[in-house]
Amino acid sequence: MATPPKKEHMPEAHKAYERSKERNASTLLWRASFIGASTQWAVDTMLKKTRFPQQAYGNCNALLSLVDKYGKERVEKACHMMKTETSTASLQVARNILMNNRDSALGNGEIVSQVPKNDNVRGAAEYSIVMELNANGGKEEQA
Length: 143
Fold this sequence. Notes:
Helices cover 62% and strands 0% of the residues. The protein has 143 residues and is an all-alpha fold. It has a domain at 24-111. The N and C termini lie far apart (104 Å).
């Protein structure tokens, strides 16, 4: 029976494969705990959202890798915003919060609207005209 090769003699691709086998849900949660409680919540929620936790490993790793680009504090704030505003975790939502600097605006006390501005929204005056028409059976009043 042949003995397996020592890890230091393995090619890089083989070493990477061996390391990938060691990654699991508890490893992802452990890594998230170093960022903060909200990030740990986000990873845990993402893992529980799928039927098989392995399906969420890619998104969880991508969420954790956002730290390299945006830093721990911003990723933690983004995860906290997801938790308080939507009660669900998503890589896309976290990425959008960070790309649009919503986490930074929140820290400055600046109000960040969740409803996009739309010039086609009419307002109370138009609404009252529609209500009058409905009350009159759809007929305009004549003076």
